[in-house]
């Protein structure tokens, strides 16, 4: 739901992350809310991906707000 990671596999590609920005998940219903929270908490707009494209088994892909299976991952990639 809310993790700090150095990198994550997205569609088979290792993507380096800015680890001070968390990896969060949201369902469609809470996406706008989570986007606002992300910007408030980290003072930067996140990069977003479909949650199913993140291949890290250890990730808890549930919406941070309601715990439902998430559709969108919010994270911050290095160098973008
Ligand atoms: Zn939700």
Automatic annotation (TrEMBL):
NCBIfam families: CxxH_BA5709. This is CxxH/CxxC protein. It comes from Brevibacillus choshinensis.
